[in-house]
Amino acid sequence: MKRSKRFLELEKRPISNDGFIREWPEAGLVAMEGPDDPKPSVTVENGKIVELDGKRREDFDMLDSFIADHTLDLNIVEEVMAHDSKELAKKIVDLNVCRDEVKRFGLGMTPAKVVEVVGHMNVVEMMMAVQKMRARKTPSNQCHVTNVKDHPALLAADAAEAALRGFDEMETTVGIVRYAPSNAISIMVGSQTGRGGVLTQCAVEEAMELEMGMRGFTAYAETVSVYGTEQVFVDGDDTPWSKSFLASAYASRGLKMRYTSGTGSEAEMGFADGKSMLYLEARCLYMTKGAGVQGIQNGSISCIGVPGAVPSGVRAILAENLIAMLLDLECASGNDQTFTHSRTRRTARMLMQFLPGTDFIFSGYSAVPNYDNMFAGSTHDVDDYDDFLTLQRDLKVNGGLVPVDEEEVIKVRNKGVRALQAVFKELSMPDITDEEVEAATYAHGSKDMPDRDVRGDFRGIEDMLNRGTTGVQIVQALAKHGFEDVAENFFNLLKQRIAGDYLHTSAIFDENFHCISAVNDKNDYAGPGTGYRISDELWEKLKNTRLAKDPANIGE
Amino acid sequence: MDKELVESIVRNVLSNLDEGQSGSSKSPKKNTGGNGLTDKDYPLGEKRKDLVKTPSGKSLDDIKFEDIISGKTDGSELKITAETLNHQAEIARSVDREQFAKNLERAAELTRVDDDRILEIYNQLRPYRSTKQELLDIANELENKYDAVINAELIREAADVYEKRNRLKGDR
């Protein structure tokens, strides 16, 4: 065939490298409205659910049992299930029906029902619903702070800058597992240098993650994964009961936590039971609710290649965020792992959460270059900061970031690394040299950093752990070396565990350690002029980006 | 609509009656203590400092930065207590978060269990790790040694489900 020059040009476009596949329901490769999804149904007898979504109790798997006994509200489930799904969908979208009234439906719908309900919505209606149903009134944002070398100096500098830029939560993970405690401490010190009250976590294996939290190296946890089929749940080495126990273990130490789930994980692991991705995700969310966890990170997350490849996949991702909100869960709404080569797709996918606002629009935004992102990249990164700030300015949307000044950034990065240098010295960890401080202050990424002596670092980390080091020693080290303000922020974060206010749904701290959550900052959106609005003070900041010229200086 | 409302109220009342009859062992003593806490008392650390104490009984204001630096106050004071968790559960209930409130009540019980034992129990609860008897032993330990009644119930339930679904030690 003689080739068309237009088609030859199209083939050169980045999107041609993306993976797309036609629907294949038997393998779970269908985003929502799967032909073999169960029809919604429930039967209650003698105060017990005896039938759920077409399955009798004797045939329940672990998730069915857990959802039937811990999640659904027996007082309302039959009443709500009797409603027409389209009518429920209309009420969810209708801005004249308040959030509290809609919230009541959540625990009265079975997983199959809620999937049918959101299936009636297009993405604009879903965004309307997200705007009304997200738990916290004020939207916020989370970032990733990692690097290929697990370089502590660079982690501290990046965390300090990210805090200054406005992220309320920060997540790190490791290239090599043994670096985990070092990474956790590095972003904690860096973040508290940038702004007191930023919450930090380190995503590793469940038991290790809990231990770091108990020691005071992290402030919350998120990588506590749940899955929508029993086989995948068990392959993930957990059950709904072990995960529920873990949830209470965190709370018993005054530590905030949320679960993680997402469409596509079951298909990716080969056990989707022929069900749609959204139906299986709905089961995860109902399980999460039943465990009594305050929130969820979802939006496909690390499996986004799967829903991203099938029709209506990005719509399903928004739908799963919405289902979390219908269950009154905090929602850290994805937008993390890279799924496309196309800048257009990347932005379009992100707008679904950016425009209505969520508890955490990204989970997270890459506060490092993409090559340093150890969560397999993110849809947006440090090189997109100006684009993102411009979108906020263009559309008058608070996406959680504020414009910053280069000189300020350099200053705070430098201070963050020097603070960590002091901590490492005091904890007898391998030195952070002055050369490393200088490199991290001005670095774009780990390519600009000298290599670490990895073996030496491991020995240092092991010794530090064996000495029983906790957050308190870090506070003392910071104070001893003149970083009183950072020490005090670190101390205040540890002190918050006593009161436990930040265990609640969608909790974050402002710079004065005032807790803002879905208890004292309830979303009260009810149409134009209500709900969250950008304050005049914030708008002044958002307008004045680096790229915006001052008319007074034109022609000088 | 009115008919629906009445029906729903009746169901509500009946189910509460059911709970009251069958479940004295199921609904263990809750430390709600009738403080009547609601979202108006939140954040507790700001609005109800009188109710927030450290493990040794100090108030929030007694926990000072200088004393942590000098070592006068021990790091073990930076912990939440069972009482505070039960207060937070009460607040959670006031904003209709029943399951979350229950989680906080389970957590209140677990404040009495040390870190290592918590990690061990968590690992024992993972699939294929324990026999049914081992799980029941943990439940008894939690109930008798730590007065952790709600957690014990959760683990007994797990033991039954693991048995039914073949997720006990040796089932793989």
UniProtKB/TrEMBL annotation, chain A:
One Pfam match: Dehydratase_LU
Segments forming domain Diol/glycerol dehydratase large subunit: 2-552
Organism: Halanaerobium polyolivorans
Molecular functions per Gene Ontology: cobalamin binding; hydro-lyase activity
Signal peptide bounds: none
Protein name (record): Propanediol/glycerol family dehydratase large subunit
UniProt cross-references to InterPro entries, sorted A to Z: Cbl-dep_enz_cat, Diol/glycerol_deHase_lsu_sf, Diol/glycerol_deHydtase_lsu
UniProtKB/TrEMBL annotation, chain B:
Source species taxonomy: Bacteria, Bacillati, Bacillota, Clostridia, Halanaerobiales
Protein name, UniProt field: Diol dehydratase small subunit
Region entry Disordered, spans: 16-56
Top-rank lineage group of the source organism: Bacteria
Chain intervals with Polar residues compositional bias: 16-32
InterPro entries: Ppandiol/glycerol_DeHydtase_su, Prodiol/glycerol_DeHase__sf_su
Biased composition range(s): Basic and acidic residues: 38-52
